[in-house]
Every structure is written in structure tokens, then in C-alpha cells.
Amino acid sequence: MLNWLFDTKKKEELDLSRIGIDIHSHIIPGIDDGVETIEESVAMAKKMQEYGYSRMFTTPHVMWDCYKNTPEIISTGLEDVRNAAKEAGLTIEINAAAEYFIDEHFIDLLTTGQELMTLPGNRLLVELPYSTPLMNTSETLFSIIERGYQPVLAHPERYTYFYSDPSVYKKLADQGCELQVNILSLSNHYGENVHKMAEWLLRNDLISYLGTDAHKIQHVELILKSNKNKWLTKYPFQNEKLINI
């Protein structure tokens, strides 16, 4: 089973071993808008291993209007992916956290002390709405810190309502929030404006981590389009420091 994944093909010339760990993806099938089959999960993990990743955290959405994922649902799906990857002979270490949409459900989880699935170092991956800003973003991020977590804001370059005043990104970073840029934002995958904002954030040293945010095999394959981007080899992403935590 799954031996078809190892057909002989020309290996892509991409080495992300300097990054080492991916902290944002959606490879547990059937629980959010990520992959639909275990075969695609394994294909994505295989490609990530080929790119030089030694460890990855898949981060299913927890967004109560759409994806009512719990630690139990995520952990069960993780075991299925791990078992299939092991059967396919992969060596990449696969773990799970979650990508929490900041909504009323998240606030309830946070304030009542319920279990939250975190990245290494008690880091909590959170995302904001795409269309309209939250009225209390800073206060919410402070609440996360106050309760002992390190907030990591997913793909800040995609929140276009911040473009009119990009100084907000520095304010968030100064308040203790780490920022994670998507690797596909280093190309024009999400559009030219998102690409430009990603470059601006990198030029201003505001990004801590690089993530794939891969939802399907095509996303992993499209990473090759960012291969020539100078930031992949020059920017001091902090992913590597998380590998042994």
C-alpha cells in the first residue's frame, strides 16, 4: 500500500533543511478545508521530507462556525496520518497543533482554561478574519500572553485591512506577538499585493517563522515557485530553534 508514492522521478532542486520544521499545514484528511484523503496526506509529507523538512506540525482549523475540531478529533486524525506515513517509509516527524480562529469559541476556550493544542514552546497559532478587522485584536493577543501562551499570528500578510497602516504589524510584534509568513506569499500565489506585503514585513524584520500553510498537494508543489526568492536563504527565520523543543 502507498508504494506508488515512491515512483522514480527527478528530484526537485529545493533544500529547506535550513528551515527544518514547518509549523503550519492542513494534512489531516476530512476535518477542515485541507486534504480529503490519507493518500494525499502522505504524498504531502513525502514532498516535505524531500524538501529537507525533518519535522512538521499540521494545524487544523478550529473555527466554530465551520470546523468544530477538538483535541480528540485532531489527535485521532494525527495517528492515522502517522501510521500511513510510517507504512510508506517516511522519516519526517509529524505532530499536530491547531490554527485557532479568534472567535467567541476561542475566547471561551482561553478564558476557561480548556485544553489548547500548541506549537513548541507553548506557542499558540491564531488567525484573524480576512475581510474585516477585530475591534480588540491587541487586547485578545495580550490575553493569550497573560495566560502563559506565546501567540503566533498566521499569515499577517494576507490581512489586507492592515495595508493602510502597516505600522500595526510592528505594534503587534512589540506587544509580544510573533508573526508567521506563508512561503507561497514569497511568490504571487495569493496575488501581487500579498507578495509585496510579505516582502515589506521581511524587509522590516517583523517575521519570526516561515510556514507552508499547505492545504493540498498542489500547494506543496507550488513551493518550487519560491525557490529563487532571496528570503529563503538569507532571512533569519527562527523555525530551526523550535526543532528540539
Automatic annotation (TrEMBL):
Which Enzyme Commission number(s) are listed?
A: 3.1.3.48
**Any coiled-coil regions, as ranges:** none
Single Gene Ontology MF annotation: protein tyrosine phosphatase activity
Top EC class per UniProt?
Answer: hydrolase
InterPro entries linked to this entry: Caps_polysacc_synth_CpsB/CapC (IPR016667), Pol/histidinol_Pase-like (IPR016195)
> SUPFAM superfamilies, alphabetically?
PHP domain-like
Q: Is Hydrolase found in the keyword set?
A: yes
Q: Its domain of life?
A: Bacteria
Keyword annotations from UniProtKB, A to Z: Hydrolase
Q: Which reaction does it catalyse?
A: O-phospho-L-tyrosyl-[protein] + H2O = L-tyrosyl-[protein] + phosphate
Tell me which PANTHER family the record gives: TYROSINE-PROTEIN PHOSPHATASE YWQE (PTHR39181)
Q: Which family does it belong to?
A: Belongs to the metallo-dependent hydrolases superfamily. CpsB/CapC family.
Name this polypeptide is given: protein-tyrosine-phosphatase
Organism this protein belongs to: Dyadobacter sediminis
